[in-house]
Amino acid sequence: MILTVTLNAALDVTYEVGALEQGGSHRVRTVRERAGGKGVNVARVATALECEVVATGLLGGAVGDLVRDDLDQSGIAHDFADIAGTSRRTLTIVETETGEATVLNEAGPDVRPEEWQAFLDHFGTLAASAAVVVLSGSLPPGLPTDAYAELVRRAPGRVVLDTDGTALTEGVPGRPDVIKPNADELRRVTAGTVSNGGNPAGASEVVSRAASLRAAGAGSVLVSLGADGMLAVTSDGVWRAVPPRVVVGNPTGAGDAAVAATARALLLERPWDELLRDAVALSAAAVAAPVAGDFDPDLYVRLLPEIKIEGLPCPS
Amino acid sequence: MILTVTLNAALDVTYEVGALEQGGSHRVRTVRERAGGKGVNVARVATALECEVVATGLLGGAVGDLVRDDLDQSGIAHDFADIAGTSRRTLTIVETETGEATVLNEAGPDVRPEEWQAFLDHFGTLAASAAVVVLSGSLPPGLPTDAYAELVRRAPGRVVLDTDGTALTEGVPGRPDVIKPNADELRRVTAGTVSNGGNPAGASEVVSRAASLRAAGAGSVLVSLGADGMLAVTSDGVWRAVPPRVVVGNPTGAGDAAVAATARALLLERPWDELLRDAVALSAAAVAAPVAGDFDPDLYVRLLPEIKIEGLPCPS
């Protein structure tokens, strides 16, 4: 079983308006709501891939109830812990005339220390029967910054950690099996640790930065490079996977699709080159779908054999 | 007792952001939520004035529950009818750097015919013990356009109608005792019925337009003129009330405060000049408060004796 953890789960609200006018008054044409947060997106993709998956994390208040309702309707198995605060919403305002999207993210509820302790027990019970645990997204206010390290230590199975900033740097010492920063996130969390070498976007620099996170505790580092594919820095070697063409669409959720592919590959104990191929194809197929957590299944199957995999030199 | 009716009640959500950037991603600094809709604002002001008031209307779904929770916490007596649809939200995005406000209004739930019939019974029971009924705001999708006329006919007491467009023009034949358009609304609903006379903002034109709505069924017409005060066109005469100075602030909710003052004056059977004085003072005190439904009580008391009342010639 794959267990996804979303500590700052959200209700993703989408408003369609004609054109957004700063300082103006707008009639909202359509309102869509759906359970969100990166771990929930991973669970949605993994469910669509017919993996056995359970979504957990923290939920509270009326917004938490709406998230649970949507998970039920979407057929995603879930077992979230209750908190007293109200879960956050994210709002995306889409302008129908131009397609431009403006995003407003609420910070999330304050989690009390006793709620975090109760979640650790809840997580331990669920993780005991999970071959793979996925930890995704930001930490809500009130949680310790090393919350992810604590969860990694309590998980007996393989762990994928997909977060950013302090939550990532303080999560890595817990020794997750895989972390999945994108190139920007990687650069931010390794600032000062690797010399630039005059080529900020080069593969060798990315490999060096990833190697420094392996040294800090990460088993393997998957770096998503957007339209350029992904790069895996592992104890078995270094690989790069490149998609055959650029897919145009909504990149939100592409990283979550790659994490879902990674979790499935770990569950099935597939080798790194196969894992990378799957992650890059699924990620591109997610870009082609308009909403985070969805992917285009036909495009996914078409892209799989077209992903180019190449080995790279290991970091010196 | 004053009964306020809000058929399209809302949860008013306010987001504070640093600066709103079209196409950008924003962290919301603070989230505030409160029960809204024009009739709810009237009930809030009337409650603060220590009137006996009950708020009714239609509420549904998780948003409806949040509206009821806020009414409870605000000490506003309420008895809304349930509907299957989810009540709407309004979102105001306030930029802390400039104070500029961008507003997004959801349309509201589709109300089923049987829900409207059930509300008519519910309303009849409540209205039987209400000396004054206040009907405020837009109609949610699914209601007949003459919904307000139907409610006016079923109310044994005095009725104040504060709405716009078709809901107003089709509500007036029900013979409400008072309607309260602002100058723009008055102009829209009487377009073509009154010659312009070369002076679109003049008092005589406003009086003529108001008189045409009296001829269509309204007992008296209170026209709010923003910073210029209010004008009353009644069977007893025509009055204008002018505040001593311009109050700077948030005009949203100023009209609702004027309606609350009107409802109280009808309840206490006060003469029109006193009603106008009270409505203009309370309206200006509401502009000085940052949130619709609130008013500055000290400013209200200070302004009351300073409002200038003058009689105007009756329409020919």
TrEMBL record, chains A, B:
Source organism superkingdom: Bacteria
A family per Pfam: PfkB
Carbohydrate kinase PfkB domain mapped to chain residues: 15-291
Nucleotide-binding is among the record's keywords: yes
Keyword Metal-binding tagged: no
InterPro entries recorded: PfkB_dom, Ribokinase-like, Tagatose/fructose_Pkinase
Keywords: ATP-binding, Kinase, Nucleotide-binding, Transferase
Family the UniProt entry places it in: Belongs to the carbohydrate kinase PfkB family.
Name of the protein this chain belongs to: 1-phosphofructokinase family hexose kinase
